[in-house]
Structure formats: C-alpha cells, structure tokens
Amino acid sequence: MKPLIEIENLRKEFFLGSILSRDKIVAVDNISFKINPAEIFTLAGESGCGKTTVARMILGFEEPTAGRIIYSKESSDNKEPVWFTQGIQAIFQNPFETFNPLRKVEHYLFETVYNYKLAESQEKAREIINSKLESVGLSYEEVAGKYPSEFSGGQLQRISIARALLTDPGLLIADEPVSMVDASIRMSIVNLFKKLKEELQMSILYITHDLATAYYMSGQIAIMFRGHIMEMGPVEKVLMEPAHPYTKLLRESIPEADPAKKWTDRISISDLESDEYLRKGCKFAGRCPEAQDKCKEHTPEAAYIDDVFVKCHLYSG
Ligand code: SF4
Asked: SS3 for 69?
C-alpha cells in the first residue's frame, strides 16, 4: 500500500536557555515512519520526548533542521507544500484555548469555510458546517449563536474536530486531544476517531502519553524517548509483548504532559530532561535496569524483531 505520509530522517535541534547560550539539544533525532491511508498511528512517550515537535514540523509550525516529509507525493523540499493549508488539519489538547471566549463558536466555522473558499453562499456554508457537525454527533442548531462557555469541554473538542474536517483533510493530527476532557466523555471522543477512520477513510496521527487509548484505537505505534523512536510496530505487539526496556517501563507509569509548556526555538527543560538529551550513547541508559557499559558510550543501531523496530543494544547485536 502506498503511504499517505512518509517521514524521512527528520531532525530538529533547539538551543537551550537564554539567547546567548549555544547549548543545543536534538529534540528529534533522525526519525522515520510512514502512515498509510485510513490508519491511526500513535506517537507515544512522556512529556519532552519530542512527539509534539514532530507534529509541529508536519504542520509547518517548525522548520526541520534536516530530513524530509512527503505527503501524498508532495515533498517538504517544495517551498509551500499544499498540506500546510488544506490536506492536514490539527486539533489540540485544550479546546478552551482554541476558541476566544468573547466570540461565537459558529464564527470560527464560517471563517474556515470562507478562508478556504469552500462555499460561495451563506446557505451553502451552513450546509457544509452542519454536515461536519453531524459527523461528530452535533448539529448547526445546537451550536448557532452560542459562546464557548455554553459548551462542555467534550462538546468544544467535538466542534474543534468538526472544524478540522471542513477541508476534508487526508490526515488529522490529534495532539493529546482527550487529556483535558472528563474521563466520562474521553471514550466517546476516542470512538469518534475510530468512526472517522472507518467511515471517511481518514488517517490520524494520535499523539499521547496515554497508552490505554493508544492501544484501543491505533494500528501502529511508535514509542519515543528524548528524540529517538525506541520501539515501533503493530500496537498489539509493541504494547502486549514489549521488547525495549523503555516500553516496558512506560507500560507501568508515564508522567503527565505539561500543558503549560510553550515552544520557541529556545526552550527551557528540566535538569533530568537536559541530562538525558545531552547523554552520550543510549538516552535511556541512566534509568534502564538492563544497561550495559556500551550503552553509555554508543547509540544503539536499529534492529527488527519480525515487524517490530527496536533501538536497543540488547537486540542490535
Ligand atoms: Fe537499556 Fe542499553 Fe537498551 Fe538503552 S541500549 S535501553 S540502556 S539495554
């Protein structure tokens, strides 16, 4: 099957601390993966592992230091790849930050329709908006004339999804989309993603620290740690029979993402993150119960166990 999107040797470097500092970290270090049409692919890992930076590069919010993104035959080598405008849409963690509290929610929907020239009349625009709202379990009547504060977090996240669907994107990037909604409605949103994949043949890049929802809805998963993909393959194999020591640890506990974290090309990170990013050899060696001497000196090569990619000296011979 021809992939919808291919990420090839993607790399992103950031400078640490003040404008005078030349210390840098490699937030994303030569990672590659593919997402097929109608596939949910999860990028999982703890806060600061590089997964959101990958999403921001795909969306064009960050420029890669090296590597290529190929979407539906368009390469990021081109000056303005088409997906930056229409083919890829995103929804984010906090639906209350997506909408200005003083602006009626329907304005965002009409604005998107007119910006992308999806309809020439108000009647046609309303028809398109209603059909996308219906695909997320709402209707235009339920939304019309209301401000963000009149909706629950779950309803607002559904409206964000409907807005993202307006351009009929091939790929939806969902960055921690359920971490700030009530547990009671989390599953309804996760089920909505599965429905979009099945009914609209849409691909989804699901970014999360929550392995339970990742297991429930994705086909493939990549586990990231300090800029590297440590293990990648079918979700059933990676999460039920993990090979990499980090995946094993992750199954037991994973720190919450920090929703307040803001990104620029200068970042500040915790001492632990900085030590791990700047470490020689395997980035996980300081916490790994199976670390050997060579782990502290040499970065492991990628190895394959059947169809599972693993980056660990235990498997790279
Ligand atoms: Fe642990 Fe070494 Fe494997 Fe890294 S390479 S995960 S330190 S065993």
From this structure: strand
What pTM value is reported for the model?
Answer: 0.88
The two three-digit tokens of residue 33, written as one number: 């993966």
Superfamily (CATH) of domain 5-83+209-311: P-loop containing nucleotide triphosphate hydrolases (3.40.50.300)
**Assigned token pair, 249:** 């640890």
Tokens 């995103």 belong to which residue? Answer: 90
What is the atom index within ligand 1 of the atom nearest the CA of 295? Answer: 2
What count of other Cβ atoms lies within 10 Å of the Cβ of residue 226? Answer: 25
- Per residue in 76-105, pLDDT (tens digit) is 666 565 555 678 999 988 888 889 999 999
Using the structure block, give the residue that is written with the tokens 């939304």.
Answer: 143
Give the Å distance between the CA of 290 and the centre of ligand 1. Answer: 6
Q: Which residue in this structure is represented by tokens 């992750």?
A: 250
Which residues have CB under 6 Å of ligand 1? 245-246, 282, 284-285, 288, 290-292, 295, 300, 312-314
Closest CA to 132 of 165, 158, 108, 172: 165
Domain locations in the chain as residue ranges: 5-83+209-311
Contacts 24+ apart (CB under 8 A), 112-121: 112/163, 112/166, 112/167, 113/166, 116/85, 116/86, 116/166, 116/167, 118/166, 118/167
> For residue 292, which atom of ligand 1 is closest to its CA?
2
CB 59 within 8 Å of CB 207? no
Whole-number Å distance, alpha carbon 303 to ligand 1 midpoint, is 13
pLDDT (tens digit per residue) in 157-194:
999 999 999 999 999 999 988 887 777 788 889 999 99
